[in-house]
């Protein structure tokens, strides 16, 4: 009885989590119009920002964001060093981000100071950066700009396959491919 009750509660939480991914405006990419006030800063409110993105060594030089492969309900996917799931936006056909304004508030870009660092299971040759409109460096993998979902905690993957802001948000495998929705 307790197991069935727990499974029911987990099912309800999963549905609520998916519903939260769709609460934002569908076409709010804004083409950078509101970018200065709406881009999520390093260390923003999402689970993976802050300390995992920028670390300083003893000499004061900034290290890059660490990207690693870890297990999820979708298989092995990209996470940052704080176990925050990483997504790509299938609307983007190049390494240039099209997610600004309300889009970037819901899907904060994975930013870095310094070169991003490949960790467990990732390919260093697939890691790169792209410059955002505000001059910050966004991490790319396999040529795709990378994002977090703002309302996920460490280890959570709630929004894979969500259609929002004109495209699908998909988790990424070790080869840099989006997993099917």
Plain-language structure description:
The protein has 181 residues and is of the alpha+beta class. The protein is built from three helices and twelve strands.
Taken together, the total number of domains comes to 1
- H/I helix tally: 3
User: What is the average per-residue confidence, as pLDDT, rounded to a whole number?
Assistant: 79
Report Rg: 16 Å
Which consecutive residue ranges, at least 5 long each, have pLDDT under 50?
6-19, 24-61
| Residue fraction in strands | 15-25%
Q: Could you give the order of the helices and strands?
A: HHEEEEEHEEEEEEE
Q: Using DSSP, what is the number of strands? A: 12
Head-to-tail CA distance between termini:
33 Å
The rough form would be described as globular
**Content-based structural category:** alpha+beta
How many strands, which pairing sense, and closed or not: the largest β-sheet? 4 strands, antiparallel
Helix content: 10-25%
